[in-house]
């Protein structure tokens, strides 16, 4: 380049620089001007997903970001070390000397290169799957290298370039060589197979082999900090410095875009990235990130004020789903560019909690707990402003015939632009509907009444009258095809169907539907096509007019599952369904199933969830701190992307001998010992813009697939030895991932041990068989001996039985004789008693007769009686029978006591028979006193103590 050309370029740069200073003074106006041409909803931004230092477990600063081409894991150069994110969990890999990792790069082989202070090298999985570090610093011989930070790493066809601000090292074929740039360098960039770098105070150079060639006309860049070099169009380059961007066509450098450069002049460009054929992302040091088209027009601007964790962008990376990752000075953020869903965040809470919204006359209105806010969609960068007079709680915003009606805590307003007019002072306008049977009438549910609105002479809606005969708080109402009005009364009071009078001034008839499933507080009423539908404790119910009752709605709407929380029909063409877990689905009412929309759950206004149709192409979701914008024509693309099957990440032994395996792709077959039956399996899906749910099944342990769960791990305990196959799938990809593993049996239950056990068992069986034969022989001998013994015993038993039988016969005879003896004795006693009674009676007769009867007759009778009393002959007979029964008791008594008289023996025999004193007296024909005297004498002769009973003594003798 000639001296004149160089001077011309310098002059152009100076003119541009001063123009940039002037432009910077009006940068806000310029940005507003360029945004005006964008869509009316351009103030809404993509979804932001935050990862704080507490989330990833490392330090704030993230200097580099890259995605692994094979695994799709993300890696970040963090001040604590190398961060790895697999979509489910974060890991930190620290360098041996704990240096800050300043740069990261991945080559085609999948090696992860990092650079730090006086250190660079690469990470590769070891045999357990964990990343292991291999340092290349020992290959560098220059001592000055120890004080150099490796700020940039670039994988090229010539090798891996490690670059500090003073040196460039190239790693190739296992060797590290030092390149000699012409001065202190900034950042080496590769564009269209060209290696370019800025050299301080000299300009832009291109590396060709070991040579550094100056790019002509770039000398003015020597005083700039060249941070990014990107392709522009088919042939041009886009050169970005801290303060400006230039386009280069191999001939000259020209400013890229005045408005964009004015922005960079104020906010200092730090990183640039081509994120699409006609789209760029630029990260700044002071004001977040901007996304532009190929002409430099700003399409998105996201900073800390509208959602980023921090406005200093240190690194950028685009993943395989075309989402943008930002490494910030404080945290990591993901901008979900892949989704058409956009968000308007009210991060500072300036607007309050959003309950409803509406679009009317190119204005967007938000109804919050603080009032009604609006902004013009023709000036999307303008802020929301409060509509004067609407301060307070807003419940409902409804557009009818291009007129905006506002249901407010203080009544009902009509809003025209930025002005509000009170139409009705009845408080609490919950819901407003046009009656299909009376198109010129609106009906409204409030805190206490139902109200009617009609148009006035100017064609504007005005309050007409309340409806008599009804008083209740109505948050939801719908008109049925027959013209009756369905109202959802105060919580826990059920539904009510009202029939209004012809003039709509009173309630003519009313039916209450308050079954157990219709009186819970979370019941919701809506009209889908021509059906009155409610969500209830039993799932979806629809009103059956023929049966006058509610029946299950699934017969018409199969998607109406039991977990449905609320249904939002949109113009009878679409239906949005909110489920209990906060997930949102949409589709046409007659579809078999609905499609899930990947929106953030748990950000709804509890019990006041609202989805609003803004126009024919956009639907908005009211949230606690802003709203979500859904483009109807692009919802089927929401979350679309090449989602891979889930990855089984690790399998670890929970107790016993420790063992852990980490995988980065298909898992090989594994085996564990019998003591390692408690396993924890973790898994992930390297897809970052949608929540992932998993289902799994372990062959040989569980019978069925598990329910869908967001958990990224599963623990199995007490697995018995055997062969197992773990199946895993996600809700984003039906393909299965499989992990095969075995729990080995203990050493004493292997194949060889089982064979040994069989041999031992065979030998044992043979020995047992022989032992059995011996035992059988011994048993036969014992049986024979036992039989012989039994025969002997039987003979002896027979003899004993004969003897016993004879004894029994003798005992029976003895008993018989005893009975005969007792009977004979009792006969003698009775005879003697009778004779004594006769003698006594005869004596009394004689005494009464005196001398009338002859004395001889009486004497003869007495003699006869005395002769028939017990005689000696009776005693002998008694004695003989007595000895037979009592085994010669008297003989033994005489042998032992020879001094006993005949009378003593008689007394002893009678005592032996246990006769009483009176009975003995009758036998001996003496008085009882005489018997007692005989007993006394006998006791003396027998020498018996006084405390011994004489009768018992004789019975036991």
Give structural attributes.
four-stranded antiparallel sheet, alpha+beta, 957 residues, eight-stranded antiparallel sheet, 36% strand, Immunoglobulin-like, disordered N terminus
Widest β-sheet, arrangement of strands: 26-27-28-1-29-56-55-54
> What is the percent of helical residues?
10-25%
Name of the CATH class of the domain at 354-637: Mainly Beta
Strand content: 35-45%
Largest sheet: 8 strands, antiparallel
Mean pLDDT: 87
CATH topology of the domain at 354-637: Methylamine Dehydrogenase, Chain H
Number of strands: 64
- CATH superfamily descriptor of the domain at 354-637: YVTN repeat-like/Quinoprotein amine dehydrogenase
Distance between the termini: 159 Å
Overall 3D shape: elongated
How many DSSP H or I helices? 12
Which segments are poorly predicted (pLDDT under 50) over 5 or more consecutive residues? 1-38
Structural class by sheet pairing and helices? alpha+beta
- Any guess at the CATH architecture of the domain at 354-637? 7 Propeller
CA-atom Rg in angstroms: 58 Å
